[in-house]
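Data card: per-record layout.
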Amino acid sequence: MPQVNSEMSNNIQSAGVKHSKAFLEMSSDDSYYERMYQPNGYGKNTGDCGDTVEIFLMIKDGLIKDATFDIDGCINTFACANTVVQTIWGKALDVAWEVTPELVRDYLKTLPEENFHCAELAVGALYLAATDYKKRGF
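The structure for this 138-residue chain is written out next.
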């Protein structure tokens, strides 16, 4: 994935669409883009568009010690999944329930309205991963 130059302005013209610095960073930072081996919370969500988001959590003592994601989808889905993971990483598990698609959209600033479902997919995968953790009784 291409890296975003940190000296870029807050709004950058890309493929005819102006994107916020936050959107460009979340769509190009692959630091949390990996499949986790033996997570204790896992969620997978597939949308009508065909995109799939998987969220992997490692929780210990009520804290999200590690979180990663994998997607099969577009750059908007990638940006949304990355935003979700970076929002919860290192926080209490209870914070996961506070993440909403609207929060993701507002953080990214330039997520196209027709791609709001990408935020819903990512947040849905997070809720499934948190639920999976609770069901396992850790």
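Known properties of this structure: Confidence is low (pLDDT under 50) at residues 1-15. Helices lie at 21-28, 75-88, 93-96, 101-108, 116-136.

See the next section for split statistics.
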